[in-house]
Amino acid sequence: MCRWIAYRGETTALEHYVTEPSHSLIAQSIQALESTASINGDGFGLGWYGQHAEPGLYREIRPAWSDENLRYLCRHLQSHLFFAHVRAATGTAITRANCHPFACGQWLFMHNGFLGNWNRWRRRVEALIPDALYPSRIGTTDSEAIFLAMMGAGIEQPLAAAATVLAALSDFVNQSDPGDRFRLTAALANGRDLYAFRYAVNDRANTLYYSESERGIVVVSEPIDRDKNWVAVPENHVLIACAGERARIVPLFERHREAAE
Amino acid sequence: MCRWIAYRGETTALEHYVTEPSHSLIAQSIQALESTASINGDGFGLGWYGQHAEPGLYREIRPAWSDENLRYLCRHLQSHLFFAHVRAATGTAITRANCHPFACGQWLFMHNGFLGNWNRWRRRVEALIPDALYPSRIGTTDSEAIFLAMMGAGIEQPLAAAATVLAALSDFVNQSDPGDRFRLTAALANGRDLYAFRYAVNDRANTLYYSESERGIVVVSEPIDRDKNWVAVPENHVLIACAGERARIVPLFERHREAAE
Amino acid sequence: MCRWIAYRGETTALEHYVTEPSHSLIAQSIQALESTASINGDGFGLGWYGQHAEPGLYREIRPAWSDENLRYLCRHLQSHLFFAHVRAATGTAITRANCHPFACGQWLFMHNGFLGNWNRWRRRVEALIPDALYPSRIGTTDSEAIFLAMMGAGIEQPLAAAATVLAALSDFVNQSDPGDRFRLTAALANGRDLYAFRYAVNDRANTLYYSESERGIVVVSEPIDRDKNWVAVPENHVLIACAGERARIVPLFERHREAAE
Amino acid sequence: MCRWIAYRGETTALEHYVTEPSHSLIAQSIQALESTASINGDGFGLGWYGQHAEPGLYREIRPAWSDENLRYLCRHLQSHLFFAHVRAATGTAITRANCHPFACGQWLFMHNGFLGNWNRWRRRVEALIPDALYPSRIGTTDSEAIFLAMMGAGIEQPLAAAATVLAALSDFVNQSDPGDRFRLTAALANGRDLYAFRYAVNDRANTLYYSESERGIVVVSEPIDRDKNWVAVPENHVLIACAGERARIVPLFERHREAAE
């Protein structure tokens, strides 16, 4: 079911968040505590923004816990906005192309969850991807398809794009009786702003926490230490961490958002 | 552009055809002679039939020349019908799921060639795959999509299924002006019978040879030695090597086949 | 700390012992029950005897649980004597050359355990390997070094060779104060006969069980099902399963063996 | 036989030297021009210095030409001193631990060449490694052993340490009749200074070139473009590129160096 961490803030070496904490993502790869899969050993990935316009990616199919390259990179890469992800596959192949994060242009996306009965809905979800973006579908996961569908739904307005796609996916799974389960806990970024979604249909949402300080914000599937103050993101809400602003949480869907404002 | 070998005949250790010949497939992985890509180092695969109803597969993304597992397996696996393939990727990811051969039920398929402008035609080709077989699309290559389209076109009549799919693909590439190039040199088997196709549209076909003896038949992208008598399969023809029969060659398309009979 | 299984008996598909049982080795790779390491995801290996004079090997650094090649091979490979091993590394690199089993000539060896403070004793253990066998040291594990030392100590008499090497290793670890821990639970075979060792110095030995029937004998780190009758091998004993004979258990060291006879 | 590139100068993205040039190291991985092995597809590696006291490493067993991680890292990693290497193995295993560069403390080393009859001399070369450094021997190559021997011979004086070890190795190979061939073209760095050695015994040395400008110095197995002015390093000489100084070339052995000064 995967575990992940996203960071936005002062430029820092990735190791301070990915490898060093007492319950770091690497530790979670071999023993997660709040996940249905305690072992997340089906590959991993890093995505980060630097001086180049597009983000960097390092993805590998080996377990994170034994990858010496990962330790070197986390020590040497510095970034103001980065993602890290350890994977527990739910049916699709163990390939680099199926490891998170996914990159498209300046955008990064990663995901924890699943779309129940993926083989039934796969074609419909893939049909949400516009032709122009279909060449970017280099893997076969539900996660990548959802990302590319969001890209095609007007990613410049990330909340609206996400709401559009999640509504469509919710419709799909509700067409079965009983409805298929759908859980999505995802992070999205464009190099400046960071969005984290917690959503579920016909099921409980996966856990999602964040901790904010003067230095920046960390968003995680489960807390990486006991030192920081971890706040749970409510179900069906999105955490918005724009550059230069305090993070805020809003309901995922427009009508709820309007009511909340 | 890939190189491959297919064998049907007396049960034999794979090594006699895959690793031992002077210009074996392993040698071709590092220096092919009749291919546009002299190096076929983007993964490889074995597919073979044994006592189990479904074929076995061994696919790996490393170059064939340095894989010690491959040498052990070729020495120890014995089969009356097997495929081996070394890959030179033409754009899709280097993953096991994109390595040949592909298996579906009792069928094996492998391919050398390409469908020009794959990103333009990919969705149309994938649309040829029936819903029931779409879960078998675990990779992203044109080759696997063509195979599954053939499966869906009535694979029990392999020549008709192949003709149907190749006609559809030819229509696609001819919709561009000038027509996109399309080359397919492929092997297909069901555990008893072996079919090898040599076809091209808007281009010359890739080379395809076979050698038949009392012991069986070997079909290759390029000759693996100078000892045997290698016969070229004509363009736009299919080699049919049914169990218990001498091999024969017929034109790929029905109207030609009728004329030939 | 690794988990393994060894089989000698009627020729059978490996899957019946490696992948199919309720608590199969593949299941143990992701959740072992009697091991200090519950996850054995640092590579795996198969070794088997067939028609060729030397055994076959398939070793891979990915976790066993996600390797589709392994499932195909276990279904298609048939053998009268085979080993399978899942690894939890204890410090040495995750490479195929460090995965078990190890082969040398007609011999196979695999191991579960460790030689405490390996870096202190490594050179001394490597010095036990004769010059003629040193080219066979293609990895860096303690396990491979112990195997090659046994090969050099007169492997034609496997019990004597093992006793010689284990005595030397015991001397090494006892030179520190307090003595370093040393645990070895290992299997050794030559294509006909199978030997399984359970030994420890300054520590408790790892678990070792076997189950014998008309069809053959299975030796395991921990039981693979609840159907068979599993018997524990006593500490500091060796299980001898020669072709055509009932298995017997003898003390590891000569003076004990004499007393036992 | 490997190809490599080393850079010292203004901080720059690795891509300008590793992936972008017309005959870049990546191009050389698939078609080297001045090497006995035109294909260098047996793994690769990057080593670089950044803000951390110790260098970073990224090593992988796949061919460099198909590794998408490598392209991302070369775009995003910036360094004032870095190494890149593509490997053509000469007998030792294809493992990350056998890929260059090798790191030990603040030092980096990489190598192109071979020590003829390695299996005959291996133990003697390994015996040159001091006990304290033997735990750093995580692979099995001649290259790593030579590096660790140099580390043990007083690496703070790199020229003297190299001369000591190369003299010892030369003695070894000359003990056979006819003498075994020994070729070494190697780079060594400590984060500030860069040394490049070109040496051979009983054979011609591999090629080694450099190009120096205001911005820094590039040292290569073979020229990466036609734009720069490439100067060959003479056989049995060492190129010294200390921080803040113009590069200079001196004979490898002391008596020659004295004569040259």
Description:
The structure is a homotetramer of 261-residue chains. The first copy, chain A, is built from seven helices and 13 strands. Chain A is an alpha+beta fold. In chain A, the strands form two sheets. Chain A has a seven-stranded antiparallel sheet with strand order 3-2-4-1-10-9-11. A six-stranded antiparallel sheet of chain A has the order 5-6-7-8-12-13.
State the gist of this model.
The structure is a homotetramer of 261-residue chains. Helix content of chain A is 25%, strand content 30%.
Indicate the mean pLDDT of chain A: 94
Multimer state = homotetramer
Largest sheet of chain A, in brief, is: 7 strands, antiparallel
* Count of DSSP-assigned helices of chain A: 7
So what's the overall shape of chain A? globular
Number of strands of chain A: 13
Largest interface: A-D, 19 and 19 residues
Which percent range describes the beta-strand content of chain A? 25-35%
The order of strands across the largest sheet of chain A is 3-2-4-1-10-9-11
| Helix residue percentage of chain A | 10-25%
Structure class of chain A: alpha+beta
What is the fold's blueprint, element by element?
The structure is a homotetramer of 261-residue chains.
Chain A: E1 3-13, H1 15-18, H2 25-30, E2 44-48, E3 56-60, H3 68-76, E4 78-86, E5 102-104, E6 107-115, H4 118-127, H5 142-152, H6 158-174, E7 182-189, E8 194-201, E9 209-212, E10 216-220, E11 231-232, E12 237-241, E13 248-251, H7 254-260
Antiparallel strand pairs in A: 1-4, 1-10, 2-3, 2-4, 5-6, 6-7, 7-8, 8-12, 9-10, 9-11, 12-13
Helix pairs in contact in A: 4-5, 5-6
